[in-house]
Amino acid sequence: MTKGQRFIANAPRFAAMVPPRTVVAMLTAILGLCPVIGRAEETTILPPGAYRLEMVMASISRLPFFGSSKSASRSISLVEIRADGGKLIQSHRVCDFRVLDDSAMIKMIFPDKFVAALAQHTYPIRVEKDVEGWRYRADLGVERIGYRPGSGDTRLPNDVDDPSVYDWDGDGNPGATLKLSVPLLPDGELYVVQRGHSVLNGRITQPGKIEGEIEVRSFEHRVLGARPGFLNKSPEIRPDPKESRFFMTQVAQGSTCESLSPTLR
Fold first, then answer.
1. What is the pLDDT of residue 28?
2. pLDDT, tens digit (0-9, with 9 covering 90-100), for 91-132
3. Neighbour count for residue 260 (Cβ, 10 Å)
4. Closest Cα to residue 138, out of 58, 205, 53?
5. What does the pLDDT look like over 163-180, one tens digit per residue?
6. What is the pLDDT of residues 34-74, one digit of tens each?
7. Residue 3, CB half-sphere, CA atoms under 13 Å: how many?
8. Which helix (H) or strand (E) holds 60?
9. Is 19 exposed, middle or buried (0-12, 13-18, 19+ CB in 10 A)?
């Protein structure tokens, strides 16, 4: 009889020696290791801690009186990733938001109060392994600017008298205030409401570093008022996903908005 045959022959005797409760416990422990090992891999490739998130959102705008133009905005956010109940949770707070590319005629400015009023967002993230490496996905949810959502939240407010519109950035004007600089004209202000929904889809290129694309699920923008009055026209804004991208890199724990470099890549 071979060694393997002797083991098989003695298996019933071994099973009889081990209490059933112990066998169940052993099997549960072994099977339970699978998700634990998976979570350990995730936290190794994307360690919990502080990160710098840079998002470049490109768009094509058609502005009344000024025609079409391409532009891109860049935001820098301070991110925290933490493990919670077997899931990875991400939070981000916008530190800086500005326009990168303007048309020759127009310059859009996001005032400090606008940036300060942007909400902090918290959401689960997905990290999955495939044949090419590790994928990262973060659904940022719906961002509402300048108004409070009503029942159903199916449309943006049409005018400043809509009860859902409020002084979102605390500057004394309805909605959210954007500043507009046009050559040969005095600087203007736009009082706007916006609603957008974006998803980050990327690859973890090395532990603690992600690059990818920004999927814009929806974006709506409406001008409710303006100074001077002739600017009170809502532009048509179409996101340009081919030119939109994001980069996320781990930074030192305890980093602040002031410590994040605003320099573009």
1. 47
2. 999 999 888 865 556 678 889 999 999 988 999 999 999 999
3. 21
4. 53
5. 999 999 999 999 999 998
6. 444 345 566 789 999 999 999 999 887 776 666 666 778 89
7. 0
8. strand 49-63
9. exposed
Task: Establish how many alpha carbons lie within 13 A of residue 2's alpha carbon, considering only the half-sphere containing its beta carbon.
Answer: 3
The closest alpha carbon to 119, from 147, 82, 144, 90, belongs to 144
Burial annotation 126-156 (CB, 10 A radius, 16+ → b, else e): ebeeeeeebbbebbbeeebbbbeeeeeeeeb
For residue 67, how many other CB atoms are within 10 A of its CB?
A: 11
**pTM (2 decimals)?**
0.78
Check if the beta carbon of residue 135 is closer than 8 Å to that of residue 203: yes
Residue 228 pairs in a beta bridge with none
